[in-house]
Structure formats: C-alpha cells, structure tokens
UniProtKB/TrEMBL annotation, chain A:
The chain crosses the membrane at residues 310-332, 387-420, 432-458. This is Spore germination protein. The keyword Transmembrane applies. InterPro entries: Spore_Ger, UPF0353/GerABKA_families. Belongs to the GerABKA family. It is found in: Cell membrane; Membrane. The keyword Ribonucleoprotein does not apply. It is a multi-pass membrane protein.
UniProtKB/TrEMBL annotation, chain B:
It comes from the Bacteria. Pfam families: Spore_permease. It comes from Evansella alkalicola. Belongs to the amino acid-polyamine-organocation (APC) superfamily. Spore germination protein (SGP) (TC 2.A.3.9) family. The chain crosses the membrane at residues 12-31, 43-63, 84-110, 122-140, 147-166, 194-210, 222-244, 273-298, 310-332, 338-357. Keywords: Germination, Membrane, Transmembrane, Transmembrane helix, Transport. InterPro entries: Spore_GerAB. Its main location: membrane. This is GerAB/ArcD/ProY family transporter.
Length: 490, 368
C-alpha cells in the first residue's frame, strides 16, 4: 500500500567500522590486561597513539613498585586525581600489597577491576582513569568530569509563565532535572549506548503505569537495533524512531523545556535524552499534541485555554490554506468574493504584471528566505533583517508594482498565523504544504484545492506515532479525550 | 517492528460515520426530484424507503447470530457452490464500477456547471480519480478515520438546512403532501427513493473489520435513521422554498437552495460555491468508499497479500478512468437503469444472500 513507501528500510549493521574490529587490530579485546605496567603502558600508547590529549603518568613508590596512570586530560578532574588517587597512594605505600587494598586507600566513590581490554579502553574514553600498580590487577577509577554547564533559559521555546530553565548537554543531568519535576518512583529511565563509533548515551525516560508497555517495548527494540556508526543529533534519532520518516509531518517532537516534557510524561509519553543535545525527543505525539504547550495550563480561567486552542487550530487552517484560497478565488472563482472586495482586489492588481500565482509564490519564497536568514543570524542582526525585510522590501515591492497590497496582507497574515504553533518543526511542515496547495489551486482552483485538502487529510489520518494515530482524538474519535483537550478537568 | 494496540481496529463511531457517508452523497445532492417523475410527497417515500434497509440489517443480524461471523461474503463462500458465489461477486464488482462511473459523471456535471465552466470534463474527472485512487491506497483505516474527521461537513449541512426552515423564503403552504397520483408513477418514483440508501451495501465489507466487542447493530440503525432524517429535511426545505413546480426543474435542488441565501456578514457573496467544496468533499468520500469496496470484492475473486492490494485499487481507478473517457457525459437525468441496478445490488441480492444464509443448515466442524 501507499504507506509502505513511507516506511523505513532497515540498514545493515556496519561491521567493518565497529569499535571492536578496530581494537582487535592492536590486541585481543577479551584478553586480561598484563600485570606488568610496562606492557600495559606500551599497549595503551599503541591504542591511543596520535592523541595529544591522552595523558599518562608513571612513578615509583618508595617500595620500588611502579605505578602507571592514564586518562584523557580534558575529561577528568585533575585536582581530584591528585587528592583522591596519587596522594593516598604515596601516603599508604606499605598497604599496597594486593588490589583489594587499593579500595581502602583511594578516596573515590567508585572503582572497578578491569576485566579485559575492551572495558579498559571504553572506560578511559568515558573519562575515567586506568590505574595500574605493578604486579597487581589494573583498576578503573571513576573520576570523569564532563564538560557541562548550569541550566539556562531555553533559547528556542520562549515562555511567559513556565519555568525559566532548559535542558543541558548531559543526558544524565537532564534525567535529574526531570526528577525535580516528577518526584515519583515510577519515573523510570532506561540507558542505551548508541552508535558504533560515537557511543552516544541515550536515556529513555517514562512514567511507569502511565506509558503503554507496547510503546516502551517497541522503542526498546528500535534503540537496541540501531546499528549505524554514529548518533550525533536529536534529528537522527527522531528520524530513526519514526515509522514514516519520509512523511512531511513530524511524528515526534523536540523540546528543551523540562516543564513541557514533564507534562508529556504525565500524558504517558516517552522522552528520549541524548548526550550533547539540549533537546529531548518526545514520542508518541499526535497533531493535537503539537499545538499544545505546558504553558496552556497556566491559565487561571479554563475558557482562555479553550480560546487559545481553537485559535491555534484556526490559525493552522488559515496559515496553510489562505494563499491557495486567495489564488483560487482571484484566478478561478472571483464571484465568491463580495463585490466591493472584488473591486478592491482588482484595483490593487491593475498595475501588477505577474499573475496571482506567481505573486503568491514570490511572496511566500521571500518570506521563507527572510525567516531562514533571521534564524541563522545573531539575534540583533536577525531583528534588523525582519524589519528590513518586512517593512522596507514589502513596501518597496508594493510601490514598485511587483506585488499587490492584498497579496502582502495575505502572506503576512499567513506567516503570523502559523507562528501561533508552539512547534517550529511542525510549522516548517505546513510551510511546504502551503506551496503545494498554491500549486494545485493554480491548476484547478477551488475544486483542486478541495481535492488536495482531502488527500492531505487522509495522509494525516494514515500517519501514526508509535502506533498512536496522528489525528487522535478526532479519529479514532475519543469523546472524553476530545473534551479534555479543549476543556481540561479541574 | 509493528506494535498492536487499541487503535488498530475500528469502532462504533467509525461504523456510524461510514454507514452515513456511504449512502448520503448522491441522495443529498439530487434530492428530492430526479428522473422527472417525482411527486410532492417525496419526504413520505424517503421515510418509507428506509424500511427495507432496516429489514435487511435485521436479517443480517439474525444471520450473524446463527453463524457467529460478520463477513457476509465469506459466509456465502463457505456455504454456497462456487458457480453461485463467483457470479454474485462479479455482479457486485460490475455494479460498483457502474456506481463509481455514475458518481464521477455526476461530480463532473456539478463541478462544470457551478465551478469550472471552461474546464474540459476529462480534466475534472481524471483529477478526481487520481486523487481518490491515490488516497484509497492508504487503506480502510485511513479512509474511515478521514470520514470521521470531516463528518462535521454533514453536521454543517444539516444545521444550514434547519436554518432554512426559519428563513423568509420558506413557505409551509408548499409542504402538505399530494397523494392523488396513479400507482405506476408512485411506484416508479419510489424506486429512486429506495436507491438513495443503496450505498450502505459497502457496509457489509466494512463490518468484519469492526472490533469484535463492538455492538454493530445499533450504530447502523441509528445511522440509517439519520440518513432518513437528513433526506426528509432536504425534501421539506427544498419543497418549502421552491415549491413543487420550480423544484422539479432544478439540477441540484440543494445547491439551488444554497444559492438563494446570502451571508448576512457579506463575507461570502455566493454561499453556494462554499457549499460546492463541501459537495466535492462528499464525492471524495463516497469515491474512496466505492473504490475500496470494489477492490475488496476483487480480493474475494483472486486473493492477494495485503501489500499487493494496491494492484486492485489501481486497477479499479484505471477502469473508471477509461470508462469515463469512452462513455458520453450525462445529458438527461433519466436515472432508471442506475436506480434499478442499485436496487438490485444493494437490496435484492443481499436480501437473497442473507435469506439463503439464514435458512441454510450450518456446516458442522470439518464439513467441506
């Protein structure tokens, strides 16, 4: 069926690029580490050759026993290394007779015996320290200190009432932030290490008893079968977990706001955090989820929420249909427009050399260029671009007789209407639809527009996110959920 | 990788809207006067015409109770000889293709008359069939959900029609029925009223997909009565506004009805054009339903895997495209052949099948 075209093909695992394959060219990855520090040092230097940030230190204790320590300098806490590892070793020389004694000497929270080379290398890459006292078993001392920052104001999702801090680049700390919002033992988090090369930490957070077990199993299955070499961005993950990755509509949403994610978790969704991203993926989502924000619940009067949601739905409709409707009415069915308005439109178009369709495409394209330019530029320049583009170019284009006043109004209103949507990803999808609808209206007027809207609707009805229909609660119709969406319970 | 959950099956809301939308479009569009042989008391006949369909559904319920299976076609296959089963299914397929062709031709006339006078008929038809054919590829779940989503169209129309009852143009003097007609005219005109409900034959293919725990009898009956109420409302409003003589000459009385109104806000000067988009959407829905139904019937003849169903949908759409191109457009609205065939395929044949299934001895376990 048609939906098959939308589905993902499973890629083959990339065996030749795997971490284990590379490591096995230097050593047998399942071998125990030798007890001689010289051998360990040689092997480590071989594996981490040409890495200037790879640091090592070897020294002799007063008893004559040699000690070898290696780590990546930027990933560990140097003062803690001195205080918790080197100083205790030097102070308690006499007690260092076997590996077990090291646990009584070192003042660290966690250490572990190294079982094989694979574990040793992975631990060093994670920002831990390999400590090897000659003729004893090497251990891993957990002293990783990742580069992170304190949570700040979310930069892409502005809010008036909501919490003024967003996620940071560390998935573990982000899970911690969620625990501040939901203090419940049912808040569960599953950890994954994804990407053969990148080994990115992914955390799936959900509320037990709220989230459907089928969704969790499905996600678990998906994440465990990720065999690509890297996972570097949240977009990659979103595309991977989407059932219809070729569809124009997003089947998961991103957020950097903990309050929004907390609301989603309570609604039974799953949040996926990945390292090095300030966003998390929330899934499954429906069309209705994409037009709501947690801030909606800050309204003191429930009718405000009803109004704002109806307003967003109307804006979505207007923002998508209006340019196409304008083209259809002007080019095919002008008799539908009231007579006085028809005269105004006709007068404004008298000097315009372009047909209504070309005018619409030109203005929509100009608008999208302006939006894209203002996003990429620093905020102060972006604002200037907005003003220059909106006022100067718009006015100049009208005065030059390239576009009509009516078209400027239509496109400006269209753009503003779509910006009422909280999800930028969602807005981008509808922007593309807008072009397609204008194209269809150009060919077949209101009739073509109706057919295209019909096709669009059925496409939306086909989509699902983790098997939850995209048009839920409209279709399949769930009266209770439909009502609570517009008028939530007290 | 797929996960199964509560959303994967169809419920009572989907069944209700599917039943309603499968029947209502053509009836809605051309009620109350077609074939130039209708009489004033059309709304009485519309009320009476629903009775055979209520009986049909009642009979179906009895058959389901007996055989514990909702799929009429599958039951027929199991309980009859192949020389009965295959011709019956082929007849259904042929009739559906004929209905589809009729739907497309009606749409073309409506669109060309009211919206796109300068556009060639084949462009209108092909645009419709390509869109509907491509949409049908999404499958019955998407179709039924889409029908639910745009059900508000139907509600909007009914509300507008109720509004006409209170308008200045409406005259109750036009409403009292006139029963002084000869029996032959009465019978002939009644035929078209019965066939207005004919689309519900597609429900027999939809029912096996509904969740097992859903009580299906009630939604179908309520839906049929809702269709009947809608038809009665159209008859009364059209008759009340235009009177018998004028309404008899109209191509689409409901569209003409919409043309009589102007929006008080002045936002839409021609409200009928806005409603025409609603009509197009209604044709879109019924086109989807019939293409899916015909493809489902084709599967009864030569079964295919679900991923190969697109072959039948493409085949059905292509056949209609060819038929549309090679057949002349509708010039006179003599609907008798269509009505007779629709009466047969939607009422008589299903009745016979269900009666046969009702009185045939149930097969024992292991019996072939």
């Amino acid at each position: 069926m048609f939906s098959k075209l939308m589905k993902r093909k499973q890629g083959d695992p990339i065996n030749e690029l795997s971490f284990e394959e590379y490591l096995s060219t230097h050593t047998n990855i399942h071998d125990h580490l030798p007890r001689s520090t010289i051998s360990v040092k040689q092997k480590c230097n071989e594996i981490f050759s040409e890495s200037f940030d790879f640091s090592e230190r070897d020294f002799h204790l007063l008893t004559g026993r040699s000690v070898y320590i290696c780590y990546f300098s930027a990933l560990i806490s140097q003062p803690q290394l001195e205080e918790s590892v080197i100083k205790p070793l030097l102070q308690h020389v006499d007690y260092i007779n076997n590996t077990e004694h090291l646990g009584s000497i070192l003042t660290v929270t966690k250490y572990e015996f190294v079982t094989d080379w694979k574990m040793a290398v992975e631990s060093i890459l994670d920002g831990n320290i390999l400590l090897h006292v000659d003729q004893l078993d090497p251990i891993i001392v957990y002293l990783a200190e990742k580069q992170d920052r304190t949570p700040g104001d979310p930069t892409t999702e502005y809010q008036v009432y909501g919490a003024k801090f967003g996620f940071i680049e560390d998935s573990r700390k982000n899970v911690g932030i969620m625990r501040q919002f939901i203090k419940d033992p049912r808040l569960k988090s599953k950890g994954y290490e994804i990407g053969v090369v990148s080994k990115t930490q992914v955390a799936a957070v959900y509320l037990d008893q709220y989230c459907q077990p089928e969704v969790l199993d499905h996600l678990d299955q998906l994440l465990n079968s990720y065999h690509k070499e890297h996972l570097l961005s949240i977009g990659q993950l979103t595309k991977y977990i989407s059932k219809h990755p070729n569809s124009i509509f997003p089947q998961a949403t991103m957020s950097e706001r903990p309050d929004l994610v907390a609301l989603s978790l309570i609604q039974g969704k799953v949040a996926l955090f990945i390292d090095n991203s300030t966003f998390c993926v929330v899934t499954p989502v429906t069309l209705m989820d994409l037009i709501e924000t947690s801030e909606d619940h800050f309204f003191l009067v429930k009718w405000n929420l009803l109004f704002i949601r109806l307003l967003r739905l109307a804006s979505l409709f207007i923002g998508t249909i209006l340019p196409a409707l304008y083209v259809a009415l002007v080019a095919f069915q002008p008799e539908l427009i009231p007579t006085t308005l028809t005269i105004s439109v006709a007068q404004s178009r008298v000097q315009i050399p372009l047909p209504a369709t070309a005018e619409a495409f030109l203005m929509m394209f100009a608008l999208d260029v302006l939006i894209e330019a203002s996003i990429r530029l620093p905020s102060f320049v972006g604002q200037t671009i907005g003003i220059v583009g909106g006022l100067v170019i718009g006015t100049a284009a009208v005065e030059a007789g390239i576009v009509s006043h009516t078209m400027v109004i239509v496109i400006a209103f269209t753009a503003i209407a779509l910006f009422t949507m909280p999800s930028w990803e969602f807005v981008s999808s509808w922007r593309i639809i807008r072009y397609l609808l204008v194209g269809v209206s150009t060919l077949l007027g209101l009739y073509g527009l109706t057919l295209a809207v019909g096709f669009l609707l059925i496409h939306l009805c086909k989509l699902d996110s983790m098997n939850k229909p995209y048009m839920y609660p409209f279709a399949p119709f769930d009266g209770k959920r439909f009502k609570t969406f517009f008028l939530p319970k007290r | 990788m797929n996960i199964q959950n509560k959303y994967s099956q169809l419920g009572s809301v989907e069944l209700f809207t599917f039943t309603y939308c499968s029947a209502v479009t053509i009836g809605f569009m051309f009620l109350p006067y077609i074939s130039q042989e209708e009489i004033r008391s059309a709304y009485f006949k519309v009320m009476a015409a629903v009775i055979p369909y209520l009986l049909l559904i009642f009979l179906w319920k009895k058959v389901v109770d007996k055989h514990q299976e909702r799929d009429m076609f599958s039951l027929l296959k199991k309980n009859s000889k192949s020389w009965i089963y295959y011709p019956v299914i082929l007849y259904f397929i042929g009739s559906c293709l004929y209905s589809l062709l009729f739907i497309v031709k009606s749409l073309i006339i409506i669109v060309q008359t009211y919206m796109m006078q300068d556009t060639e008929q084949w462009i209108i038809g092909i645009a419709f069939l390509i869109t509907v054919g491509a949409s049908a590829l999404y499958g019955i779940h998407a179709i039924s959900r889409m029908i639910v989503v745009i059900y508000f169209h139907e509600i909007l129309l009914v509300i507008t029609l109720i509004g006409f009852l209170f308008s200045e143009d409406f005259r109750w003097v036009n409403i009292p029925p006139y029963l002084g007609v000869d029996v032959l005219t009465f019978m002939k005109s009644s035929l078209s009223e019965v066939t207005r409900y004919g689309g519900i034959v597609t429900v027999f293919a939809f029912l096996p997909l509904v969740k097992k725990d859903v009580k299906v009898f009630k939604p179908i009956i309520i839906s049929l009565l809702s269709i009947m109420a809608t038809y009665v409302l159209i008859c009364i409003t059209t008759l009340g506004v235009f009177g018998y003589d004028q309404a008899l000459t109209l191509l689409s009385p409901v569209t003409a009805l919409m043309q009589t109104t102007t929006s008080p806000t002045g936002l839409f000067e021609r409200l009928d054009l806005f409603f025409l988009t609603v009509w197009v959407m209604s044709f879109f829905k019924i086109g989807l339903i019939f293409i899916w139904f015909t493809a489902t019937l084709c599967k009864q003849i030569v079964p295919v895997k679900p991923k190969r169903e697109w072959i039948y949908i493409t085949l059905v759409s292509s056949i209609i495209v060819i038929l549309m191109l090679i057949t002349p457009s509708i010039t006179s609205f003599d609907w008798r052949p269509y009505n007779l065939n629709m009466l047969s395929v939607s009422l008589m044949v299903p009745f016979l099948i269900l009666l046969y299934l009702k009185f045939r001895k149930k097969k024992g376990v292991g019996e072939t």
